[in-house]
Specification:
By secondary structure, this protein is of the alpha+beta class. The protein has a domain at 65-112. A five-stranded antiparallel sheet has the order 3-2-1-4-5, with no helix packed on it. It has helices at 3-26, 36-47; strands at 65-72, 78-82, 85-88, 101-103, 106-108. 27% of the residues lie in helices and 18% in strands. A hairpin with a 5-residue loop joins strand 1 (65-72) and strand 2.
Length: 131
C-alpha cells in the first residue's frame, strides 16, 4: 500500500473537521460577564463614563532591607551589616533577625529568597612543557 492514500485520508478528515467547526463560530459567543452582579457593575461603570480601573498603591514603598548580621564587641560597641554594608553603633534592624529580609511590608527568611547561583570556578590554565 502506498503512503499517498493515507495522506489523502488525513487531509480529508482535517478538511471535514474544519468545515464542521465553522458552525460554532457563527453561534452567539455568550456574555463576557456571567453573573448579574458583574453585568450591573459594568452598566454602572458605563453610565459614569469610567474608562479605566484605578488601583490604590501605597504612597510610599520602602526598598527591601537585608539584615546580614551583627557583631558586638566586648566594650559594648556594635556593628550591624545591613544590605552588605557595616553600620557602626547599631545593634541591628528593628523587627528583623540576622538573615531576614523585609520587602513589600513582609519579612522573608533566607530560604524563601531565590538567589543567583555563584559562577563556577574557572579552570586553571594548562602549561605546556618546554621542549
Amino acid at each position: 500500500m502506498s503512503p499517498r492514500p493515507n495522506r489523502l485520508a488525513v487531509l480529508s478528515v482535517c478538511l471535514l473537521a474544519l468545515a464542521g467547526s465553522g458552525v460554532s463560530l457563527a453561534a452567539d459567543p455568550g456574555r463576557l460577564f456571567y453573573t448579574p452582579a458583574q453585568r450591573a457593575q459594568l452598566e454602572a461603570a458605563r453610565a459614569r463614563n469610567v474608562t479605566r480601573v484605578e488601583t490604590r498603591m501605597p504612597a510610599f514603598s520602602a526598598p527591601p532591607v537585608r539584615f546580614d548580621g551583627v557583631v558586638i564587641r566586648s566594650d559594648g560597641q556594635g556593628t550591624a551589616w545591613v544590605d552588605g554594608r557595616p553600620q557602626t553603633g547599631t545593634a541591628g534592624v528593628p523587627g528583623l533577625k540576622p538573615g531576614q529580609i523585609r520587602a513589600d511590608e513582609r519579612v522573608y527568611e533566607p530560604y524563601q529568597v531565590l538567589r543567583p547561583a555563584p559562577a563556577p570556578p574557572a579552570a586553571p590554565a594548562v602549561k605546556e612543557p618546554n621542549p
